[in-house]
Amino acid sequence: xxxxxxxxxxxxxxxxxxxxxxxxxxxxxxxxxxxxxxxxxxxxxxxxxxxxxxxxxxxxxxxxxxxxxxxxxxxxxxxxxxxxxxxxxxxxxxxxxxxxxxxxxxxxxxxxxxxxxxxxxxxxxxxxxxxxxxxxxxxxxxxxxxxxxxxxxxxxxxxxxxxxxxxxxxxxxxxxxxxxxxxxxxxxxxxxxxxxxxxxxxxxxxxxxxxxxxxxxxxxxxxxxxxxxxxxxxxxxxxxxxxxxxxxxxxxxxxxxxxxxxxxxxxxxxxxxxxxxxxxxxxxxxxxxxxxxxxxxxxxxxxxxxxxxxxxxxxxxxxxxxxxxxxxxxxxxxxxxxxxxxxxxxxxx
Length: 349
Description:
This protein has helices spanning 19-28, 80-91, 120-134, 146-155, 181-188, 194-209, 217-224, 232-243, 249-256, 258-268, 293-298, 334-348, and strands at residues 39-44, 50-56, 66-70, 95-99, 139-144, 171-175, 279-284, 310-315. The chain is an alpha/beta fold. The protein contains twelve helices and eight strands. The radius of gyration is 19 Å and the shape is globular. An eight-stranded mixed beta sheet has the order 1-2-4-3-5-6-7-8, with helices on both faces. 38% of the residues lie in helices and 13% in strands. The protein has one domain: 3-Layer(aba) Sandwich (Rossmann fold), CATH 3.40.50. The model has no long low-confidence stretch (mean pLDDT 94). It starts with 18 loop residues before the first helix and ends with a helix.
């Protein structure tokens, strides 16, 4: 039974029944959301590049906390998911900082290259700016799909500066996030997911081809020629892994899979470089893109990290970042409401 103010357990809303309709709902029926109103925030990166984030402030009294929201693969700060989630958070009194990862959305002209599941050098200045904007208030994080992978990897970053006796975030929610990249790419490679993968890779290629610094001739030919990548795995081997300094695709996936990193720490009997934040891992058992197996392995018996305040919630349905349920507003969904409730508990004690 749900606690006070907590949304009732998830159940799918008619007619969005089944994993694919849950996943595609916002595409098939575009959301009714307010006009974009975020305040642009430029965040300097080493080497002269910049990231663009959008700051949303709640109406009325001052915010109770700041929430950093990170989009998923081929998305941006202005994608329906982050903007929809921001509405739910603003209604609960949070300020929201929606980040465009390197090469995404309106921030594409500001930075060379593209983002990755593990992009710690980019995330460090983002977290520093977010802490400055939060001031004395709690700093929380929500990652949608790959955005959750980015944030959890950032919390495991051994090179992060500052006080290593406290977590980088005061609370973290990952929604439909790939925590085991090899398992996730194997899932999206299934024949049933052919159209999904084709759509994702087309958007990723477009992002890379729009790089303001251009591309090496060989890499451009590989992206546009007859042998162009048609799978995320091939795209990562050609673009993501070498751009982020990994010797191979396998090396990149091992370094960028939070589950693998946590299991390696547990096997060695070592703690993370700093405490992990209280974390909610929200996933649907029927997610067609990202299997729920990794979320289950986080708590197979007990959390992999001793003392980690970890909650794993696997709903029977919901698809990939869908979670459309009875009680949803014109643009919101169950996961937005549940996330806002969970974060409010963290912020207000």
